[in-house]
Amino acid sequence: MDRWYWTDSSMMPGEVAKYSCACKRLYDGDDRTSYEDGHLSITNVRLMWKHPSQSKSLGLSLALVVLVEEETGGFLSSAKLVIHLSPRPPEQPDGPVGKSSNAHIKLAIRQSDLQTSLSQLQAVLSDRAWVSSSFRNLSLNHPTRGNAPKAPRAGILGIERALEAKQQAANESISSAFEDLKQLMVQAKDMVALSHNIAARIKEQGHDSSSDETTQFRSCLLSLGIDDPVTRDAVGSTNEYHKKLANEISSALTIPVQEAGGVMLLSEVYCRINRARGMQLLSPEDVANACSLMKNSKYPLNLHAFESGVQVLQLSSLSTAKLVKETRDLLENECGGRDGFGEGRWRGVSAGEVARLAGLPLMLAKERLLLCEREGAVLRDESNQGLNFYPNYFDALEA
């Protein structure tokens, strides 16, 4: 802001207005200033900003401009012109700020005016009207000082300094962000410990809490995720790492698998466990290797692969016979059952309907129907209307 200076609103001899638009706010670097709701004018030699209630304007010589960039607006931020500037010349008149450590300013404008104002500003910077003979004896900093020397122009060194300052500011922002993230992780551990203490108290005084309150609090605990996830660096051995990871997956997903009907796709297992672990993400290979160890161990979950190659994590207590029976019962209820013959209710059921009725992914519903077909519990009817399934009653026919 120390490059702006106070001036009247009149044009200098030879000065031509090129473009004007509303300017919501002036920024000193990335910091907001109190100069807001004004009007921006771009001439062939300077920028001028004026508030409707003020008689004077703020002027900025285009000879000081090193680089111009655009910053598009977001949901809560307006579009901006970012202007990098060379140092303030010593002969410049007084302005709103005596000294500033920032080497750039920002002009907050409407998104609809951003491209036009940027192109107009770049055009006048290319023309460099302030170096022509008509302006050599005029100060661009103050219209009444005819013999003041003109401001120095920035060359390659000025551009390099502006880019270096911008890079340094970006590095400082990144470092600050990581410091905030570390602090957040520390606070998250404290919150998890606190939640465990509260959960223990609820368990001790369960009769004092309603079932709705308990359910709501448990859902909040689940959203916190895993408080101490297993890491390869902490364990060391790959085999031991996968064993501990299998135990973690089993502990974290047993209840979700039960709520999903006893079966969960391995792809969904991968997404859920990574969501629970937060920053300590797992690779698909680590998840698959850990789940494969559940097959020969005493875990409430185990890995099962269908003949098509689809892999799922299912409850160890869920047998094939039980799965087939549940699917067949569902089809009998929807197709009409044994009493549905001749009543107009007999119809086939598609994999999509089974997915909807059982609350399963479509792929998993189809795999269940194909498993029942291989076990002889259901029959298929494939036609131009699609693939439908019926309960198999042929075994009940009399010879």
TrEMBL record:
Keyword annotations: Cytoplasm, Endosome, Protein transport, Transport
Domain (GLUE N-terminal): residue spans on this chain: 1-137
Compartments, as annotated in UniProt: Cytoplasm; Endosome
Gene: LOC108679699
Family assignment from sequence similarity: Belongs to the VPS36 family.
Subunit structure: Component of the endosomal sorting complex required for transport II (ESCRT-II).
SUPFAM superfamilies named among the record's database cross-references: PH domain-like, Winged helix' DNA-binding domain
Descriptive protein name: Vacuolar protein-sorting-associated protein 36
Domain of life: Eukaryota
Any single biological process term in GO: protein transport to vacuole involved in ubiquitin-dependent protein catabolic process via the multivesicular body sorting pathway
One of the Pfam families matching this protein, by short name: EAP30
Purpose: Component of the ESCRT-II complex (endosomal sorting complex required for transport II), which is required for multivesicular body (MVB) formation and sorting of endosomal cargo proteins into MVBs.
Record-level Gene Ontology MF annotations: phosphatidylinositol-3-phosphate binding; ubiquitin binding
Species in which this protein is naturally found: Hyalella azteca (Amphipod)
Cellular component, GO annotation: ESCRT II complex; late endosome membrane
